[in-house]
Amino acid sequence: EDQVTQSPEALRLQEGESSSLNCSYTVSGLRGLFWYRQDPGKGPEFLFTLYSAGEEKEKERLKATLTKKESFLHITAPKPEDSATYLCAVQGLFQTGANNLFFGTGTRLTVIP
Amino acid sequence: ETGVTQTPRHLVMGMTNKKSLKCEQHLGHNAMYWYKQSAKKPLELMFVYNFKEQTENNSVPSRFSPECPNSSHLFLHLHTLQPEDSALYLCASSQAQGTGSGYTFGSGTRLTVV
Fold first, then answer.
1. Which whole-number Å values give the CA distances from A54 to A16, A66, A71, in the listed order?
2. Is the CB of A101 less than 8 angstroms away from the CB of B103?
3. Nearest-5° angle of CA B62, CA B63, CA B69?
4. Which of A45, A75, A41, A42 is nearest to A58 (CA)?
5. Closest by Cβ to B90, choosing from A31, A43, A89
6. Tell me: the pLDDT tens digits for B68-79?
7. Which one, B39, B49, B80, B111, has least CB within 10 Å?
8. E strand or H helix that includes residue B57
9. Which stretch of A17-26, A48-57, A88-97, B102-111 has the lowest confidence by average pLDDT?
């Protein structure tokens, strides 16, 4: 069964303190792995798509990487405005509903000034 | 207007009421989705529509009834809900199924059942 596990559940960082969020997944053939950012009371906002092991994507202070079993979202020198919940989702090649995304529970990041 | 728009943003309803959630997308996408988001749980896929045809009903109770009149509009009709149905309901859209594309989400409807 396809599964996504994110850790830690919550993370508090001082402004400028770099860290990484983890997304471990099991899927019967990976079509894509997605990172989203969600602010309170809003829908998830797309950040990155990764398709194959070794791939990396960057956007401002965020960098996403992918291996065959997990993905990391690295946050370099975070600012308070990076505070949000970060969601990871996978899309499998063989699951029913070929476009369906399966989400983890997210990591709630708080950056303290 | 661009993106995915959901209305209303907030809804409080009694257990005997009937209400509808509306979702509209202006992205030219052909697949639309309803998700339920509850505290400390992953987003739960409820329904999938691809080119206006329902392709998945993820064992959702019949008190939730989706409607997709065209590729740009999606509704979720609600009746005789239970307090445990209180949650954030998210609509999303994407390119047609099988393209490996991500979703664009709306801001959601915060539903409270009293």
1. 27, 6, 10
2. yes
3. 80
4. A75
5. A43
6. 999 899 999 999
7. B39
8. strand B53-57
9. A88-97
